[in-house]
């Protein structure tokens, strides 16, 4: 097993990269600690597969180093890196039986046949492939094929890490949920470092203890699901995590007050000071729909808004409001009355995040 360090890593698929846009991975540093269950989460095209392929050695990075337990492995070919990788689409030998497919990575390592048998039976059991062991892989359905492909990644217990690249995309939703639970169980049992790539936040948070959120070729935050929710480090994390995502308001200070567009915001002095001292024009106030207080009547520090509409989601509603033309979303629990037409919103200071050039900044101390 290994700790995987990415040091000043960058990658461009183009021969003569000129601008940041030419890079699939923009210079970044990241550590996957030994034994963790991790998710790498981000939208399509942000560089997730590129990162995995660099770790496994399928791709040589343009810049920087990959280290396993502190040793640079850049020049090691994939087969010497001791990494198992499971891809989005099944990688199996069609003419072999399921048993032989699962045994292949072990036989390749000259593992004694008794041990091969033990591991194949164990993995087949976990993935519920035991009844299929004697069948030829080409006769399996798409789900079963992908399970075999995953089994091939899981069968070796001597690997440094297992990388899963959106492995459940082709799997039926019900089975998907079950397999994700299985993977978590397997992780629990063997404590192998696992990196699970997905573009689905729910999938990420049900599998991983810690999630790396990737955006435009960089890991913009590495944290627990709770940290990503409560203190997004970047506006993208705020927007991407949560449903709906965080509200972001462009803010400035004028005449001793905070404004978003023409609308004055009632926020405390620390927020005012934080905005006032920012040296960029790109300053945003972020607040989650869950943390906005919604009142039916005027309250102290409450901002009057027009309620555009409300979406009833069963156990809660999302209220879409306009604060002098600025759109806001707020969550109202089922035991609260959902306002119509008018409401007063309050932003609790401790729930406000301030973002300068899209990165979160600390609020000044009193
Ligand atoms: P993800 O897995 O997050 O969807 P990828 O790592 O596949 O993202 O892709 C990152 C960026 O690199 C995208 O802009 C993609 O178009 C580009 N890219 C990926 N593979 C290649 C390739 N083989 N040649 C050129 N560009 C590529
Ligand atoms: Mg990909």
Automatic annotation (TrEMBL):
Coiled coil: none annotated. It comes from the Bacteria. The keyword Membrane applies. Keywords: ATP-binding, Cell membrane, Membrane, Nucleotide-binding, Transport. GO terms for cellular component: ATP-binding cassette (ABC) transporter complex, substrate-binding subunit-containing. Gene3D superfamilies: 2.40.50.100, Nucleic acid-binding proteins (2.40.50.140), P-loop containing nucleotide triphosphate hydrolases (3.40.50.300). GO terms for molecular function: ABC-type ferric iron transporter activity; ATP binding; ATP hydrolysis activity. Pfam families: ABC_tran, OB_MalK. Residues 4-241 form the ABC transporter domain. This is Carbohydrate ABC transporter ATP-binding protein, CUT1 family. It comes from Chromohalobacter israelensis (strain ATCC BAA-138 / DSM 3043 / CIP 106854 / NCIMB 13768 / 1H11). The lineage of its organism: Bacteria, Pseudomonadati, Pseudomonadota, Gammaproteobacteria, Oceanospirillales.
């Amino acid at each position: 097993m290994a700790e995987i360090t990415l040091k000043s890593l960058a990658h461009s698929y183009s021969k003569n990269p000129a601008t940041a846009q030419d890079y699939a991975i923009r210079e970044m540093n990241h550590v996957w600690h030994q034994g963790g269950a991790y998710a790498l989460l981000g939208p399509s095209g942000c560089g997730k597969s590129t990162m995995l392929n660099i770790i496994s050695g399928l791709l040589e990075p343009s810049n920087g180093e990959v280290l396993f337990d502190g040793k640079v492995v850049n020049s090691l070919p994939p087969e010497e890196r001791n990494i198992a990788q499971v891809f989005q689409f099944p990688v199996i030998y069609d003419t072999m039986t399921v048993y032989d497919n699962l045994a292949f990575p072990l036989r390749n390592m000259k593992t004694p046949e008794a041990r091969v048998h033990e591991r194949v039976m164990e993995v087949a059991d976990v993935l519920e492939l035991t009844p299929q062991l004697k069948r030829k892989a080409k006769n399996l359905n798409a789900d079963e094929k992908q399970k075999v492909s995953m089994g091939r990644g899981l069968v070796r217990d001597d690997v440094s890490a297992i990388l899963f690249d959106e492995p459940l995309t082709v799997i039926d939703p019900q089975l998907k949920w079950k397999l994700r639970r299985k993977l978590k169980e397997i992780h629990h049992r063997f404590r192998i470092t696992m990196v699970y790539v997905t573009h689905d936040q729910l999938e990420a948070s049900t599998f991983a203890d810690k999630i790396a959120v990737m955006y435009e070729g960089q890991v913009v935050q590495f944290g627990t699901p709770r940290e990503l929710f409560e203190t997004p480090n970047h506006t993208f994390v705020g927007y991407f995590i949560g449903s709906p995502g965080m509200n972001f308001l462009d803010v400035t200070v004028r005449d001793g007050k905070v404004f978003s567009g023409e609308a004055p915001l009632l926020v405390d002095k620390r927020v005012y000071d934080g905005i006032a001292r920012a040296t960029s024009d790109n300053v945003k106030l972020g607040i989650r729909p869950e943390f906005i207080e919604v009142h039916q009547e005027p309250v102290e520090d409450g901002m009057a808004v027009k309620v555009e509409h409300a979406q009833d989601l069963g156990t809660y509603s999302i209220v879409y409001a306009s604060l002098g033309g600025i759109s806001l979303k707020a969550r109202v629990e089922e035991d609260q009355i959902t306002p119509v037409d008018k409401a007063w919103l309050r932003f609790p200071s401790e729930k406000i995040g301030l973002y300068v050039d899209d990165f979160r900044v600390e609020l000044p101390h009193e």
